[in-house]
Amino acid sequence: MKAKEASARIKINRLLEASGWRFFDDDSGPANIVLEPNTKITEKQIDGLGEDFETVKNGYIDFLLLDRGGRPLIVLEAKSEDKNPLSAKEQARRYAREQDARFVILSNGNVHYLWDLKQGNPSLITKFPSPDDIKDHEAFQPDADRLANEVVDKDYIALTQMPAYASEAGWKNEEERPSFLDKNKLRFLREYQKRAVQSVQRAAKKGAARFLFEMATGTGKTLTSAALIKLFLKTGNARRVLFLVDRIELEIQADKAFKALLKNDFTSVIYKAQKDDWRKADIVVTTVQSLLFNDKFRRAFAPTDFDLVISDEAHRSIGGNARAVFEYFVGYKLGLTATPKDYLKLSKGAARDPRETERRMMLDTYRIFGCESGEPTFRYSLLDGVRDGFLINPYVVDARTEITTQLLSNEGFVVETTDENGVEVKEAFGGRDFEKRFFAEATNEVFCQTFLKHGLRDPVTGEFGKAIVFAVSQNHAAKLTQILNVMAAVMWPGKYQSDFASQVTSEVMNAQNMTVQFANNNLGGRSPFDESYVTSKTRVCVTVGMMTTGYDCPDILNLALMRPIFSPSEFVQMKGRGTRKHRFADEMRDPARKAELADVEKTQFRLFDFFANCEFFEERFNYDGELKLPKPSAQPLLSHVESPGRTFDGFETPQPDAIALQTEQQIGAEGMRVDREFFQKFESAIREDAALAEMVEQQNWEAAVRHIVEDVFDKPNEFFSLEKLRRAAGLDRRLSVRELIEKAFGHIPKLRTRAELIDDEFQKFLLDQKPEQADRIAQMRYYFAAYLTDANVRRIIDEGSVADLNVNPVFSMADLKAVPKEWVRGIPEYVKDYVSLNPFLP
Questions:
Q1: What's 733's DSSP letter?
Q2: Is 590:542 a contact under the CB 8 Å cutoff?
């Protein structure tokens, strides 16, 4: 025990001296470390490493660090190496309050925490702050109440861009408003983005200092971040913000966005471009990698230099060594991720499985941001975005060739050959082997031919729509790029000069800049199809993984998975590249033609799946089971077999290939299975509830509903709620708790949509009322549905102000006149007497 105490003491003394604290008077100034108020430490105490430095006659010894005026500033509670420094938290707080010191450092020599008693909880630090650092931080006075009380409305960003926009003529005139907004590039928060910011306000008021947003690709994480940055800077809860990304193109993208959105009030810089004067900026954007290089973050910054740190794509930008950068800084922390965690289950014995690594990263991300329950501070999923009309689900083209069909089969593609000793060697190749150990040039050609034939065209020029192709490897990407360019030269002679497709991988010079150029529509120059339309000459980027996470290119119309995917997180990210909506008129420079194209929007995108990835994640992927590694094959590998003149590193088949199966499906509002797991988890959980099962068996529905509401909803681990379950089920109406229970226990086969419920109620109406006008049934049903589902139609009918139907888009005066006279009043009376409106409300 003595040795651990002595070792901790040595380390703490060195850390203090390295950070500029002084045990003795010297040329830098008077001593600013004391053991007790106004008592300087002695040489004997410095050297008394064999003594128990924690316990003395008065209890515990605390280092007291003084400011320049000799007043208590920091209480440093030192524990031995075998003790958790947080165990001294309350004792140190009490001592700090007695000394009127604002800060506490808790340390055992190896692990250290800095605690601002006026702000949140102790934060992990990797070095002690210097006297200047902490003095600067002392001037910072966060105010959670001011943060919470700041009014954040939809125009929160627009008010920074143009404070007086509401008084401008272009805004007041509703006909001119769209062009006014477009000209001035004014951005307004969507309702869910506003709710995201407000969720942080509520959490901060409750004392939280860490927040996590799980928002689907294309839902505007950067705009939401800009609103949060303004909130913290404007209310004085941050003096400077650090925005961390994990790739250079995202660094450029974020800085450009912050300048466009916040430049009138705040300044943004990229650190590597402003290394000498970054302190003048309010927002510093950088990649994690640049700060990790040679421990630059420790040398260039103090832990207190940033009061808000935002980590974009948090599970990547704080993974592994990158977490050291994130944890180095004290203050508020916000994580952003587009990857849902719901499907990442516990795995045993799969340390080398990339899915296990991914699961650990995601779960660790939630813990880092204080979301151990698995519920982020705010969540807005792909299903939410599609339902609200902001995102697009994919139109899936499942195309499998004769060879890939065999690769994907249980048996695999079986190859028989003979080694130099005449011994027969048989090996089966699977989907994972494609372009790694199994090569089929004809298959790559079929992939590209199918892709070019069935891909969506640009609605303005008619040329091939912008696209991203995901390849197995850099070598595979090079092959596909060459094939696409050769085919494009035949299909569009003289148009592209080998610029139709570009390889965008790490081994290509300036690849990062190429991703930016593709998004900005100038990769390879401008398209030669229409001089007034700004779109990239390069139509297809072939990559492996560079253009997945966080890449913003909304005019993508085609995605191709020319590789097998086994990670649900990676799959979500890849298909997310196409979910954003886009107005093609924004790229038109001719005003007259721009007006003509005003209604031309991206309403779909095609996802070409050549390895049954969608089927895998819909039907075959075991979301609830262990993630196990495949057993090593007992078969001898061809890569170890030598033949005259050649050493095999795989198998290359010369056989031709062709599409064997091609199906197409537009993904509906219910989304893909990877987006629906939340609902299935709820059903599984309540079916295992013995008490609930007994209530259901006794048909005690009132008790069952109360049990769900009181004992299941809004509990840690899952935080189920009626609204989240409705969204997960893809329903377009309100959902009752009883329906959920009945569905889970098999009392009803499915949750019916609003249209299906309307059909049921109308059939009951026909059986009960037996209307004689058989030739007017369709008109009556339309009236029945409109009255049942539209509050405005109900108001008009109930108040008798039917003239308002002349301007009603849902149900017109002509529609009402088509209803038999006796049922104009009869249908509303029947609905009021026999039909509950609640299930039909949105």
A1: S
A2: no
